[in-house]
Amino acid sequence: MRTKPVTIIGGGLAGLGLANGLRLANIPVTVHEAGSYPRHRVCGEFMAGLNYDLVAKLGLKPCFEGALLHRSVAWIRQGRPVRTFQLPEPALGISRYALDERMARLLVERGGQLKENSAQPDAAKARAVNACGR
Length: 134
Fold this sequence. Notes:
Layout lengths: L5 E4 L3 H12 L4 E5 L12 E2 L4 H6 L10 E10 L2 E14 L2 H14 L3 E4 L5 H4 L3 E2 L4
Parallel strand pairs: 1-2, 1-7, 2-6
Antiparallel strand pairs: 3-5, 4-5
């Protein structure tokens, strides 16, 4: 049985995570990312709710090399903590600059297609997984 290719719009954590998981199952995949790698992200220096079992299942362990487990977070204003609180469960902490670049590189190494600076036309969106987060 031949598997149909999957098109994913959005090369952030969701899009690249899904694409890498599909490649482990030998499913052809193309990710369209409007930007390019590596890139700085304003949000998401730690991944709450993401555990090592899921990281392993998606084959993403190499991407999280050097990640730290954070047990608390702090809101900072003008260089000082304003509010600090404990997380319900530890969260992985790693630079999104490094993580996005590692996940993109791994996808290409696994034989996936990555189209940077590619905004898909509306007609293609109806036949694709939308993982752009907007």
